[in-house]
Amino acid sequence: MSLADRIARCRTPLLVQHRATGEIVQLDGPAEHARAVAECPIRFALADELTRLATALAYSRGTRHLDCADLLRVPAERLWVEWCEQPLQRELQGYGFAPATTCGSALAGRRGVLIRASADGRSGTLRTFWSMDDSEHGVLASSMEAWFDLDTAEGESPAASGRPAIAVCDSLAQADMLSRCFRFGFERSWQAYYDRAALSALERRAIVHHALGTIALDVPVLLAFLLLLATRSSLPQRDRRFERLNRRRARECKPPLLDYIEVTSPLPLYGPPGPWTAHGGPLRRHARLHHVRGHLVRRGNAVFWRVPHLRGDARAGTIRSRTVTWTFDEPAASRLTAVNEPSVRSTH
């Protein structure tokens, strides 16, 4: 079952009790977004290989989404995107991230992002969700949300809706889209809850870092997906509709399943991520296996990406193609067109 289906069925409010006052407070959780997810005009589900590709694009050293900011836009005023957690986390480990052990997110679970965007798709807010188990109570929502404006100029800041705003930056990049165009903050009910909790500075800092961990890492992956979606050839897509199945489920008094669009990668898998080990120093691959990171370059309306690949071990297979060129329509185009068979040009 998709994560969207599980959220659409959430009806139980998230109630917590203040330790100091004993007051019962309702916080914003999955149940408050059940209708929005169910009524989303477009829902995307990423195949595992596309999740890996988007993660590699997002976290390869040298990738600069800021150079492609004018090519990006959200294709609907409400959009749902979800993926399996396992390929994302394993790809992140390949780029030196520690395995996910917090945020209640298991490798076997799913993650999703609900985006509410402006009519031109250039600004809006987003919220992340994830699953822990198969029960209704195993679906969680981030206590933080992000607001973005892709037209934010250097030195400016996206509108923060009058709430405390947190900027997240890539320490390896002098300028990046995450720090310029995105701001993060607690959802209003969560902000009020923590404001009344009389937390110490150390406790608040720990909570903020934990909450950021449930949302900030997903943003570059989402941007990479939107960038691929905006190419002239778009991405291979398949409608998953359940009319016949839902008629049977209706006869059995079961809730209907939500339709969605399954999106796959336009490229063959570029090689297994492979295990990483530490030998008293920085993380690196096993002996004789060399990983070449991806690199993204923008030239006009063409984006060139050096595909991450492996060297040094014949068992990894033969690398036939390492450079991929994606082309885009004029940035001012207001509509995105998708075709079933993407045209990807590869060169050695």
Topology:
Layout: H1 3-8, E1 14-17, E2 24-27, H2 34-38, E3 42-46, H3 48-59, E4 78-84, H4 85-94, E5 110-117, E6 123-131, E7 139-141, E8 144-149, H5 177-181, E9 182-186, H6 188-195, H7 201-213, H8 218-229, E10 237-240, H9 243-251, E11 260-263, E12 276-278, E13 283-285, E14 290-292, E15 295-299, E16 302-306, E17 309-311, E18 323-327, E19 345-347
Parallel strand pairs: 3-4, 3-11
Antiparallel strand pairs: 1-2, 4-5, 5-6, 6-7, 6-8, 8-9, 10-11, 12-13, 14-17, 15-16, 16-18, 18-19
Question: What can you tell me about this protein's structure?
Answer:
- By secondary structure, the protein is α+β, with helices and mostly antiparallel strands.
- The protein has one domain.
- It has nine helices and 19 strands.
- The strands form five sheets. Strands 3, 4, 5, 6, 7, 8, 9, 10 and 11 form a nine-stranded mixed beta sheet that branches.
- The chain is globular, with a radius of gyration of 21 Å.
- Residues 102-106, 272-290 and 332-348 have low confidence and may be disordered.
